[in-house]
Design a protein that fits this description.
heterodimer; A: 382 residues; Rossmann fold; OB fold (Dihydrolipoamide Acetyltransferase, E2P); six-stranded mixed β-sheet; five-stranded antiparallel β-sheet; 9 helices; B: 223 residues; mainly alpha; MetI-like fold; 11 helices; 75% helix
C-alpha cells in the first residue's frame, strides 16, 4: 500500500472497575511508519488497540481507517475483525499449536489470498529489489529468519522464534495495518533488540503502517515515528516522537514520559571512548556504551537534574559538555526550580532555589550549561 | 447369553452417540461462545438428566412422544406407528438421557481453547464458524473423544428410561440391562451373571481407555 492512510478514532467505554476509556486520536500513517501508543500499565493502551482491531466494541464512538468506517455506533456500523484487513501480534506468540510453522504463517491466506504481485493494478506485495518477483511469503519468512523452521511445531520453538512466526503470520495476507501489542515485552534483551530491528526493516520493505503498544520508552523512541501518550484511558498528546518527549503537554504526560529531554541527533564519529553527536549546530560528547556508526540517527536523552549551570567561565573540570545558553524561563517546583534554557535547542535544568538565587538567574541571563558525557544516553533510531 | 439384547444395546448406543455428536457439538459451541445471558438455563436443562431419576425423565419422554402429545400424534401420522415402545422412541429418550455426558466434555474442552487463538484467527480474516472448524475442533479432540465414549457407555448401561419408554420387546426395545433384570426375575442367575460380567468388562475397558487418553498416557506431551 503506497498511500498514507489516516486513522480517526473517538471511542468511549466504561468498565465495572470504574475505569473509563475516553480516547480520541487523529493521525496520518504513511507507508511503513509506526505509531507508538505509549503509556503506563493500565492506561488503556491495549483496550484502544483492541477497539482498532475490532475485538472490543466501544460503548459509543467511531473508528475510521483509510477511508473505511470500521465502527460508528450512532449509525450502527460495525466491521468485524475479519473484514478490517489487519494483522495482529500479541505479547505472547499465540501460534496455533496443532499446525506447523509453515501452516501457521499461511493460515490467513486461504480466506485472504494476496493479490497477484505481477499485476500492477493490484495490491503490491513485498517489493524486493531487482529480479523476478519471488514468493512474497517466502521473502517475509527469510527476512524474519524463520525460513528453516517450516516443518516444526510451535512447541519446539524458542520465544523469539515463535514471535517471529507470529509476525510472519500477521503480515502474510498483506494487511493494511499491523497492530502490535507489546510484542517484544516477553523476550530477553538481545532477542528483543534484534527483533525490533528486523521488524522495523521488514515493515519499511512491505510498506505496512503499524501501531505499537508499549510502556517501554526506549522502545517507543527506537521504533516510533509518531507517539500517542495514553494516561488514564485518554489520549493526552500526539505528535512526532521528539516533540512529544521534549515538550510534554502537561505534568502528567511528562511524568509518564520520564523527565528527560529527547534531542534528535546524528552521530559524527567516535574516538577514545567518546562519541560526538550533533544536535542541530551543537556538538555533544557522549560516553560510548555501544558502538554507533557515523551518520546514524539517534536520540540524545538528557535528564534535567543532570544539567549543571555555571555563570563564570569554567576552569579545568571533568565535565565534557559546556554549552553557551541563556535562560528562557524559570518555574518553581517547590524547593526546586526548573530553568528552561536555550542553548541552540531547548533544555531544562533542575537546580535548587538557593543555587538559583546565588547565581542570580533571571530570564535572559547568559549561562553555561554543563553536562557530563556519562549523563547523555543515546537511543538509536531504527 | 442374550445376544439379541446385546446387539440391540450396541445399536442403540451407537445411534444415540451419533445423534449426540451431531447436536451436541453445535449445542456446546453455542453454550461456550454465545454472548446470551440466559444460556445458563440451557446448561441447566442439558444437565438435568444427571440429577433426575431416570423414571421421571422416562415418564416425561413417554408422555411427550405418546399419542397425547402433538409431537407423538404428528409422528404417528407420518410413520404410521407411534413412538412409545419402538426403537426410535428409545433412541429419543437415550439421546436426552445421555446429553450431559456428551455436551459437558465438549463444552469444557471448547472453553479451554486459548481465546487469543480465536482472536488471532479472526484478525486473519477467518470467520467464527471457520475458526471453530480449523482451530477449536482440532484442539478439542480429547474432549470430543471423551464425550463420544461416555455417551456410548452411558447409553449402553441405561435401565430406568428404557423400561419406561421402551418396555421389554425382544429385538425392539429389550436392551442388555433389561435382559439381566429379566434373567434375575426368572431366577436364571447364571445368565444374569454372564451378561453382567460382559457389561462390566466392556464398561471398564471403555472408561479406562478414556481416562488414559485424558491423562495422555499414550500420547506425547503437548504444551
Amino acid at each position: 500500500m503506497a498511500e498514507t492512510a489516516s486513522l480517526t478514532l473517538a471511542v468511549t467505554q466504561a468498565f465495572a472497575s470504574g475505569f473509563r476509556i475516553d480516547a480520541s486520536l487523529d493521525v496520518e500513517l504513511p507507508p511503513g511508519s509506526m505509531l507508538a501508543l505509549f503509556g503506563p500499565s493500565g492506561a488503556g493502551k491495549t483496550t484502544i488497540l483492541r477497539h482498532i482491531a475490532g475485538l472490543e466494541r466501544p460503548a459509543a464512538g467511531t473508528i475510521r481507517f483509510g477511508g473505511e468506517t470500521w465502527c460508528d455506533t450512532a449509525r450502527q456500523i460495525w466491521q468485524p475483525p475479519q473484514s478490517r484487513r489487519i494483522g495482529l501480534v500479541f505479547q505472547d506468540p499465540t501460534l496455533f499449536p496443532h499446525l506447523t510453522v509453515s501452516r501457521n504463517v499461511r493460515y490467513g491466506l486461504r480466506v485472504r489470498p494476496r493479490s497477484d504481485p505481477t499485476n500492477p493494478g493490484g495490491q503490491t506485495g513485498v517489493r524486493m529489489g531487482v529480479g523476478p518477483p519471488s514468493d512474497p511469503i517466502a521473502e517475509i519468512e527469510r527476512m524474519l529468519g524463520i525460513g528453516d523452521l517450516g516443518n516444526r511445531y510451535p512447541a519446539a520453538l524458542s520465544g523469539g522464534e515463535a514471535q517471529r512466526v507470529a509476525l510472519a503470520r500477521a503480515l502474510a495476507p498483506d494487511p493494511r495495518l499491523l497492530l502490535l501489542d507489546e510484542p517484544f515485552a516477553s523476550l530477553d534483551a538481545p532477542t528483543r533488540l534484534r527483533l525490533r530491528r528486523d521488524v522495523r526493516a521488514l515493515l519499511q520493505t512491505t510498506g505496512t503502517p503499524a501501531i505499537l503498544v508499549t510502556h517501554d520508552r526506549t522502545e517507543a523512541l527506537a521504533m516510533g515515528d509518531t507517539v500517542a501518550v495514553i494516561v488514564g484511558g485518554r489520549v493526552r498528546q500526539v505528535g512526532p516522537i521528539s516533540d512529544v518527549f521534549s515538550r510534554p503537554a502537561d505534568a502528567e504526560v511528562a511524568a509518564s514520559l520520564g523527565i528527560e529531554a529527547v534531542l534528535p541527533a546524528r552521530v559524527i564519529g567516535s574516538s577514545g571512548g567518546v562519541i560526538e553527536v550533533s544536535v542541530g549546530d551543537v556538538i555533544l560528547h557522549v560516553a560510548e556504551r555501544e558502538p554507533m556508526a557515523p551518520g546514524a540517527g539517534v536520540y540524545a536523552c538528557v535528564r534535567a537534574e543532570d544539567v549543571t549551570l555555571e555563570t563564570r567561565a569554567p576552569g579545568q573540570a571533568s565535565t565534557r559538555n559546556h554549552l553557551a545558553a541563556h535562560v528562557v524561563s524559570i518555574a518553581s517546583e517547590g524547593p526546586i526550580d526548573r530553568v528552561t534554557l536555550n542553548c541552540g535547542f531547548a533544555l531544562d535544568a533542575l537546580i535548587t532555589r538557593r543555587s538559583r538565587e546565588e547565581l542570580g538567574l533571571t530570564a535572559g541571563t547568559a549561562v553555561t550549561a554543563a553536562i557530563k558525557a556519562t549523563s547523555v544516553h543515546l537511543v538509536p533510531r531504527l | 447369553m442374550d445376544w439379541t439384547a446385546i446387539w440391540l444395546s450396541v445399536r442403540l448406543a451407537a445411534a444415540a452417540t451419533l445423534v449426540l455428536l451431531a447436536i451436541g457439538v453445535p449445542l456446546a459451541y453455542w453454550i461456550v461462545f454465545s454472548p446470551r445471558r440466559w444460556k445458563f438455563l440451557v446448561e441447566a436443562i442439558v444437565a438435568l438428566p444427571l440429577v433426575l431419576p431416570p423414571t421421571v425423565l422416562g415418564f416425561y419422554v413417554l408422555v411427550g412422544i405418546g399419542p397425547m402429545s402433538p409431537v407423538g400424534r404428528a409422528y404417528a401420522r407420518i410413520a404410521g406407528q407411534g413412538l412409545p415402545f419402538t426403537f426410535e422412541g428409545l433412541l429419543i429418550a437415550s439421546v436426552l438421557y445421555s446429553m450431559p455426558f456428551a455436551v459437558q466434555p465438549f463444552a469444557v474442552e471448547f472453553a479451554s481453547v486459548d481465546r487469543r487463538l480465536l482472536e488471532a484467527s479472526w484478525s486473519l480474516g477467518v470467520s467464527p464458524l471457520e475458526t471453530f472448524r480449523r482451530v477449536v475442533i482440532p484442539l478439542s479432540v480429547r474432549g470430543l473423544v471423551t464425550g463420544i465414549v461416555l455417551s456410548f457407555a452411558h447409553t449402553l448401561g441405561e435401565f430406568g428410561v428404557v423400561l419406561m419408554v421402551g418396555g421389554n420387546l425382544p429385538g425392539v426395545t429389550r436392551t442388555v440391562s433389561i435382559s439381566i433384570y429379566d434373567a434375575v426375575q426368572s431366577l436364571d442367575y447364571a445368565a444374569a451373571s454372564r451378561t453382567s460380567l460382559l457389561l462390566l468388562i466392556v464398561s471398564f475397558i471403555i472408561l479406562a481407555s478414556t481416562y488414559s487418553l485424558q491423562r495422555s498416557v499414550w500420547l506425547k506431551p503437548r504444551r
